[in-house]
TrEMBL record:
One of its GO terms (cellular component) is endoplasmic reticulum membrane. It comes from the Eukaryota. PANTHER family: SURFEIT LOCUS PROTEIN (PTHR23427), SURFEIT LOCUS PROTEIN 4 (PTHR23427:SF1). It comes from Seriola lalandi dorsalis. This is Surfeit locus protein 4. The chain crosses the membrane at residues 64-85, 92-111, 180-198, 205-224, 240-260.
């Protein structure tokens, strides 16, 4: 069996998986994508006093304004996630989460920390994908079956911005140390993300990357195995939910066909033209 046959079989498996999961995969993708906001909103509730004290000591704004800050973060994130997951007022919920990101970027001085700034921008990319999804245009049934609409429409511009920031979201997961496994992890993940970004073997590459990130996440970011009083617990928990958001973004673009490879687009265009010609000739014969 040749390399081409293996790739064809692997793509068939990916197509079959998407057909079986097409009804609930977008819901799983959204849940993964907003998991970071859910976790942070819950943390605001359980660490209310610590968060309020930190904001008061950093900005000298008084306990009242510090409590208002924590309340806005809690309600904005949990409320926005509930609306997105229930598919109600999705645009308003996304804008509320954009506001939370901006508020936290300023309040926690994230502007001066490049790594955390990139992670906040990448979360914005996930929200752009959610905004693109809720646009009232036609959507694909399977990944790789796009509508042939105006490529400069707001939906496509949102998708483009989401794709760029999704790549940025993945880059924040890279580990820049010289251990053999970290180098292998970075090489494999980057190669798969490049394939997804350029639209080559998109569904297969994205699903492979999802499987790879799931294994990495549950193996190396197992925060539940570290006592909660240790600082490493919070670091691993942050990385776990950040990786889960990347997985959600990948699942969303695959489930809804946001990344379209050139051969797939050409094939779809040809099928569309053939269908239009058949309709035209059938109408002429009928008349």
């Amino acid at each position: 069996m040749g390399h081409g046959d293996l790739m064809s079989q692997a793509e068939d498996v990916a197509d079959q998986f998407l057909r079986v999961t097409k009804h609930y995969l977008p819901h799983v993708a959204r849940l993964c994508l907003v998991s970071t906001f859910l976790e942070d909103g819950v943390r605001m509730w359980f660490q209310w006093a610590e968060q309020s004290e930190y904001i008061d000591s950093t900005w000298s704004c008084g306990r009242f304004l510090a409590n208002i800050f924590v309340l806005l973060n809690l309600l904005g994130q949990l409320g926005g996630c509930v609306l997105i997951l229930s598919r109600n007022f999705v645009q308003n919920a996304c804008f509320a989460l954009f506001g939370v990101i901006a508020l936290q970027t300023v309040a926690y001085s994230i502007l001066w920390d490049l790594k955390f700034l990139m992670r906040n921008l990448s979360l914005g990319g996930g929200l752009l994908l959610l905004l693109a999804e809720c646009r009232g245009e036609a959507r694909s049934v399977f990944a790789g079956v796009p509508s042939l609409g105006n490529q400069s429409s707001p939906k496509h511009l949102l998708q483009l911005g989401g794709r760029v920031l999704l790549v940025l979201m993945f880059m924040t997961l890279l580990h820049f140390d010289l251990s053999l496994f970290s180098i292998l992890q970075n090489l494999v993940g980057t190669a798969l993300m490049v394939l997804v970004a350029v639209g080559f073997k998109t569904k297969l590459a994205a699903l492979t990357l999802v499987a790879w990130l799931l294994c990495i996440n549950f193996t190396f970011n197992a925060f539940w195995s570290v006592p909660s009083y240790k600082p490493m617990h919070d670091f691993l928990k942050y990385d776990f939910f950040q990786t889960t958001s990347v997985i959600g973004g990948l699942l969303l673009v695959v489930a809804l066909g946001y990344f379209i490879s050139t051969p797939e687009r050409r094939k779809k265009s040809q099928l569309c033209h053939v269908s239009l010609l058949k309709r035209y000739y059938s109408r002429v014969v009928t008349e």
